[in-house]
Every structure is written in C-alpha cells, then in structure tokens.
Design goal:
Blueprint: H1 2-12, E1 114-118, E2 134-137, E3 143-144, E4 149-151, E5 156-177, E6 180-187, E7 195-205, E8 210-215, E9 222-225, E10 233-241
Antiparallel strand pairs: 1-2, 1-10, 3-4, 4-8, 5-6, 5-7, 5-8, 5-9, 5-10
The structure holds 2-acetamido-2-deoxy-beta-D-glucopyranose and calcium ion.
C-alpha cells in the first residue's frame, strides 16, 4: 500500500514539478516524458503541506427533543371581564338586636287642647256667649271662663258637645264659630219637668278661631239650668291636629 501511494505520487509529480522543493539536488526527481529507459525508483518525497480547510459540512439531523423549560414570566394583568349574572337571593338572616330607645319627642302638650266646663249662674243673657264657670278641666286654658269662648291654639279637627238641663223655659242654643251659628238645638220645656237638650259636632279650626254656646232667638228661650245636682255642661277637645 505504501508503495502504491509512492507510485501515484510519482505519476502526478511532473505537472507540479516546479513547485516541488528540491532540497537535495542530487536526487533525480524530474524525468522528461518518454524517458522510460533507464528508469529507476527514487526515494519517496516528503508529505505535502495540509490543504486549506474544506467547506462546512451539511447540517446534521435534528437532535432529540429537549427537556421542558422553566415557566415563563407572569404576563400583565388582563382586562376586567363582564359583570356576571346576579345570583339567587340568599336565605333570610337572623333578627337584629333591638335599637336604642329613641329621644323624647316634642312636647306632647303642644298637641293637647281640651276643656270641660259647667254652668253655675242660671242667668243667661241672649246674643252673647254663655259663660260656663264651673271648670271640670281646662289644663291648657284654651277656654276663657271670663268670656265663655274657646280659643283655638292648635289647628286641627275638634269635637264639641253640650248637655243642657232645661227648666222653666224652652231652650234654643247655637254653637258658634267666629260669629257664625254652626249648630242649633231646641228643647221645649214641659211644666214641672226637667228636660235635657244636647248636641255635638266636629269642626276644623285654625289658630285664632273661637267657639262658644249662645242662646239664639228671642230672650225667652234661655231655660238653661243648673244646681248642685243638675249640671249643664260644655265640652270640647282636639281630635286630630294638622300635621302640615
Ligand atoms: C235636680 O235633680 C234632682 C235629682 O237628682 C231633683 O230632685 C231636682 O228636682 C232637680 N232640680 C230641679 C230644679 O228640678
Ligand atoms: Ca222637652
């Protein structure tokens, strides 16, 4: 094998003869063409220099799939999604603790107005308010015993009533509101009897309105009577006050 390589090298040499270094002039390396006669084998030359690096080879076949890499960084927060459907109503909760007691309200006195009075003096003059001077109740002093008139201090609905003992004469009385007779009551007296006359009414009053009883007609119909055991009374009170 080594011999074959030497022969091949020898056969190639003529075309590169000028490039072959001839360090040893005594060695007959160059041989003219066609000079086979007297041919003798020379000593094999030195190995040539390394050639220039060849081109890059082809890409290798893909390697095996690598192991799974580490998890990536957390991305930015996404946008808020749409509102979901309202859920079903939950079960009813337990009763709460009772709250604190409330503050006292406005003075209840403001909304109180009531009086109840009786007749003491049989002398009743027609065309003027009858003066009831026997006071059963007049806490707020909205009834004036000196004039016989009730003065409205709280606007609202009022109830008035009167129960009159009739003796010796007929009785014609009217309940007045601001100089206007609102209610009429008539009782005819029968000899040697004690009669009663009564009436009641609901009236809406404004502050400043006045209400009283008064004999109407001629002065003869003033048989209102009272003694220690027979009363004639006049009563009134606020039923509902106006809230607005
Ligand atoms: C008042 O009532 C009493 C009964 O309680 C009666 O005896 C008396 O006669 C009455 N007064 C008048 C004036 O009738
Ligand atoms: Ca009668």
């Amino acid at each position: 094998m080594l011999l074959l390589r030497a022969v091949l090298l020898f056969l190639i040499l003529p075309s590169h003869a000028e490039n072959i270094p001839t360090e040893d002039p005594g060695v007959p390396i160059l041989l003219p063409k066609g000079t086979c006669a007297g041919w003798m084998a020379g000593i094999p030359g030195h190995p040539g220099h390394n050639g220039t690096p060849g081109r890059d080879g082809r890409d290798g076949s893909p390697g095996e799939k690598g192991e799974k890499g580490d998890a990536g960084l957390v991305g930015p927060k996404g946008e808020t999604g749409e509102t979901g459907v309202t859920g079903a109503e939950g079960p009813r909760g337990f009763p709460g603790i009772p709250g604190r007691k409330g503050e006292p309200g406005e003075g209840a006195y403001v909304y109180r107005s009531a009086f109840s009075v009786g007749l003491e003096n049989r002398v009743t003059v027609p065309n003027v308010p009858i003066r009831f001077t026997k006071i059963f109740y007049n806490q707020q002093n909205h009834y004036d015993g000196t004039t016989g008139k009730f003065h409205c201090n709280i606007p609202g609905l009022y109830y008035f009533s009167y129960h009159i003992t009739v003796y010796m004469k007929d009785v014609k009385v009217s309940l007045f509101k601001n100089d206007k007779a609102m209610l009429f009551t008539y009782d005819q007296y029968q000899d040697k009897n004690v009669d009663q006359a009564s009436g009641s009414v609901l009236l809406h009053l404004e502050v400043g309105d006045q209400v009283w009883l008064q004999v109407y007609g001629d002065g003869d119909h003033n048989g209102l009577y009272a003694d220690n055991v027979n009363d004639s009374t006049f009563t009134g009170f606020l039923l509902y006050y106006d809230t607005n």
